[in-house]
Design brief:
The protein is α/β, with parallel strands linked by helices. It has 7 helices and 16 strands. It folds into 2 domains: about 110 residues, no CATH class; about 210 residues, 3-Layer(aba) Sandwich (Rossmann fold).
């Protein structure tokens, strides 16, 4: 299984996208309200093989808001900015099959994304029939790790309520939501059976509160979850992505279809070293991809040319004209004024 020192180099710095330099109004206790003067756009660029493109300059990018090109005022590849990470773990019945695998994966994520330095902090929310704050915002990862070890799956899945809780009802770090940057890492399959909140409600809340969502999906072995598309939407619309560590374990294994058995066509048998190795490989790859995604982002800032208060949501588009085949990933837009 993965350990802290095996992945420490992958996550030396973690930060999420947000909207910058804001003026905060008088908040309702537990809520965050932001009026935006300057927009921050974290951008990830990958080539046609999924490899990160990290040698671009400001002049390579074009940023558009509602179709109109904006002037980039600030550009950097800063990799040492403060961050607060929310770990949201699915403890519903759907997690039972591979619970131990993802429990260990969650621990590895915590230890790597919270290296014990003061600029990194995190918190833990579990969601079954209800969403619960298991560990409030701290710099030390040990309490979060201890709580994860004690979690047991069972019941429904209040996934959307967990996002709501993470955005509004935990102890905030001084300077949030502007700095440190805020990200959420979801370990689950995205299904929801028990929430009081809706998908659209928490998506807007995450966008307003400057949160970027990443997912480590518990969907395994080519199966599908009805919540997959919802987890993907939450991630992509906030500028993140979803990893599927157990969904392609057999793609490079010969004998997958030619080794029939009573339990199915499996070239790797449960309980064997090969099976455990493939699972570890899948988990390691997903953590590496999430960490790599976060730490190779470009950060751009611009001041919108127009301050139209009647416009509720503003769409963002980023292009790299000189490299038309690359994939450019960023948040879909932002809400410029407090609700």
């Amino acid at each position: 299984m993965l350990r802290r020192n095996a992945l420490g180099a992958l996550a030396g710095s973690v930060f999420a996208g947000g909207l910058g330099r804001a003026q905060q109004g008088t908040p309702i206790p537990g809520d965050i309200r932001v009026a935006v003067n300057e927009v921050i756009v974290p951008v990830t660029v990958t080539d046609d093989r999924g490899r990160f493109v990290s040698n671009l300059d400001q002049g390579d990018f074009r940023v558009f808001e509602d179709g109109k090109q904006q002037t980039i005022k600030y550009f950097n590849r800063e990799r040492n900015q403060p961050v607060v990470v929310g770990f949201l773990i699915d403890v519903s019945n759907a997690s039972r099959l591979h619970w131990k695998v993802f429990q260990e994966a969650a621990i590895d994520l915590v230890l790597n994304l919270m290296p014990g330095e003061p600029q990194y902090s995190g918190y833990l929310v579990s969601y079954g029939n209800e969403a619960e704050i298991q560990a409030n915002t701290k710099h030390d990862p040990e309490n979060i790790v201890e709580k994860i070890r004690k979690l047991k799956p069972g019941g429904g899945a209040a996934f959307y309520d967990a996002i709501y809780l993470a955005c509004t009802r935990r102890d905030l770090v001084k300077g949030e939501p502007i700095e440190p940057r805020r990200i959420i890492v979801v370990i689950g399959d995205g299904h929801d059976t028990a929430s009081k909140k809706s998908l659209q409600e928490v998506l807007e809340l995450a966008q307003r509160n400057l949160v970027t969502i990443y997912g480590v999906s518990t969907v395994a072995f080519g199966f599908n979850s009805e919540g997959e598309k919802n987890l993907t939407k939450l991630a992509e619309d906030t500028g993140g992505r979803v990893e599927y560590p157990l969904n392609n374990l057999y793609k490079d294994v010969s004998g997958y279809l030619s080794t029939p058995s009573d339990e199915g066509n499996y070239a790797l048998k449960v309980g064997t070293g090969g099976y455990a190795s493939e699972i570890a490989k899948g988990i390691f790859g997903s953590i590496a991809n999430v960490a790599g995604e976060i730490t190779t982002q470009y950060i751009m800032r611009y001041i919108p040319d127009q301050q139209d208060k009647a416009k509720v949501f503003r769409e963002i588009r980023v292009e790299v004209p000189s490299l038309p085949t690359v994939k450019v990933r960023h948040r879909s837009g932002y809400y410029p004024f407090a609700p």
